[in-house]
Model the fold of this input.
Amino acid sequence: MKRTSTYFPKPGEVTDNWRVIDATGKTLGRVSRDIAVILQGKDKPTFTPHVITGDHVVVLNADKVRVTGRKLLQKMYYRHSGYVGNLKTIILRDMLAQHPERVIQLAVKGMLPRNHQGRQMMSRLKVYAGDNHPHEAQVRPDTEQQEG
Done:
């Protein structure tokens, strides 16, 4: 009887690629889903649950992301300092005006695993409000995969 074995890449065997995604005019949830899949490595044939096989992601134009419905006025973001009565709320419209990068970061964070591996994946995400980013050296022109 022939025995087959499944190949599992070791952490040292995984190559780190960089991908650039332009969020101009894209829906927040859909672009966040695509980013989460890339960070986890689920779009690769070598996906392994216990090894980070995903790529680094650079998101540009986070301030031009689109939302549908009445989310601009109804979606709320909460943060709490831990002190009594110190719950802060901010609506999506104000968050996009003040910190557009945080909107995409929080959406992607909610789609990743809630463990040490998920925190490592989040460190591979770089979000910028404009067109420019300081990762030109990592994003090689021959390997750059411009999404969308």
Remarks:
- The domain at 16-67+100-147 is CATH 3.90.1180.10 (Ribosomal Protein L13p; Chain: A;).
